[in-house]
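This week, look over our next protein:
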Amino acid sequence: MRTIKKVLAATAAVATLVSIAACGSSSDGSANKGDADKAELVFWGWDSGNSMKDIIAKFEKANPGITVKFNNTGTAEKTSTALSNAIAAGNGAPDVVMLEDPTVTQFAVTDGLVDLSEFGADKLADDFAAGPWNKLQYNNKPYALPIDSGPEMFFYNKAVFDKAGVDGESIKTWDDYYEAAKKIRTTGSYITNLAGTSNDYQPFTAQIWQAGAQPWKVDGEKITINMTKDEGMQRYIKFVQKLIDEDLVDTKTPNWSDDWNRELNDGTIASLTIGAWMPINLMTGAPDQAGNWRVAQLPQWEEGKEVSAEDGGSALAVVKLSKNQAAAYKFIEYMTHGDGAQVMADTGTFPSLKKILTSDSFTDPTTEANKKTNDYFGGQNVNEVLSEAAQRPTEKFQYLPYNPFAQSAYGDEVSKAYSGDITLEQALENYGKKLAEQGEQQGYTVTVK
């Protein structure tokens, strides 16, 4: 059987994370379920909604024998890199880790996560939306529980669009989007930002997914890389290159940077195509635009279609090195399937739990949480639009089993197209070669088209 090589990236930031979490994991690598009712847990993750402190407090109140130390790792990429290093070292890993959905498979393959069917999680499949649940399976067993889901949405600043004479609700196709981009640029704003950094990787995969692209295919030990000749990729490349060439997108500002929040807050960036979990981030990152933002369904490549895609989504997993696996599972079950899931939904996380998605309270505009969000969005019933998107069809799409590397390499290679050094097609061709090299190093048989 193939031996998977672990991806290492020793950095000072990683060393710090490993150091502060050393108390939360085993040094001998042995699995240990521990006491389900008594433990001191270490939890790595990010907290863009600033709600983790309150949720953990509620969990600890309900489970007085368990304490949870949350270490904010900043981003999904930093978290997965730190976890790779801790697992490779055999110590310093957390008990619980937050991962982006596409990353879970890699850590399951390398035996870094606990098979949650040991705790009965395999019985929960029907309770979650199929999209996020299916991304967390390896050998038909769950290795994480989904926190949220992320159908790709079109968020736009109505005030900026109105200034440009653009009706956001009339944008139904990507051709409509292109025409709107030209009008918005005349006002001094950009319709969006595209910088090609690693933080832009998830919107990239969602956008090519919706375009019908299959840039990589995994068939057991075989991987096929097709970054530029695939029909969907050609459609995407041609469209985005046009936006770059005509200066219709901000190519200097990456997602999740301080400049990104500043430009969302002052109207320089007028729209985003991003996951349904975005409202709370707009509310905290662009407070001066309260009342101006709106959300709509994603533009389509063919008029009249209703094709969606998933942008990210995150999950909680129990790390194999943990000495407190039973208590760790109790925590992630609370956060994703128990009372904590509702608290997260109430604070802006777009849920993956069906009973929340289909509840009257989720789309009820009079609830306290919805009223706060809807006020920011100019009185629009936001969750009603998001719920519709969650029910739209999606094409099949695979992620590579070394997704953290794919995300990092994306920033290294594709950013060159946005700085104008090479074309997007050339950048993606180079990116494909790098992905192929990594696959071969990990023992896969790789074909590049």
About this structure: The CA atoms of residues 219 and 433 lie 18 Å apart.
